Amino acid sequence: MKKQAGKLILGMAVIALLAIFFVIRNGKTEPASVQVDIREYYEDSYREYLEKCGYAGEMSREEVPVNLLDYRATDGLVAEEGSKGIATSDTGKISWSFQVPKDGFYNI
Questions:
Q1: C-alpha distance from residue 68 to each of 2, 10, 32, 42, 44 (Å)
Q2: Sign of the Cα pseudo-torsion (65, 68, 69, 70, in order)
Q3: Could you tell me if residue 45 is inside a domain?
Q4: Number of domains making up the chain
């Protein structure tokens, strides 16, 4: 049960960051992410959390397709689809459902 909850939380975080990335990226063509040594870029508490969860410095090479336009807006969120992504209001929540077929740590 804890493993499923962890996957759900990780998946929701991945989706939220993907949405932010597509809004911010604004059509640029440089690479979306670069694998880095976790010890250099994360504060100690997050590094410790990842290591406790089994992170050994290697990201998954699997890709998880997510349809960004298939979202659910709740708690009063107003979301509008545009040519550069999804614009949201300041309050409420947005979420996506998707399946991650293989456990691991993923770059966003």
A1: 26, 16, 16, 27, 32
A2: positive
A3: yes
A4: 1
Q: Apex CA 14: angle with CA 69 and CA 98, to 5°?
A: 55
- Answer for the pair 94, 79: CB distance below 8 angstroms, yes or no: yes
Whether 13 maps to a domain, the answer reads yes
- Span 10-65, pLDDT tens digits: 767 777 766 676 666 555 544 444 445 554 556 778 778 888 888 887 888 888 99
pLDDT digits (tens, 9 = 90+) for 8-22: 677 677 777 666 766
Domain region containing 12: 2-95
Name the pTM for this structure.
0.47
Residue 104 inside a domain? The answer is no
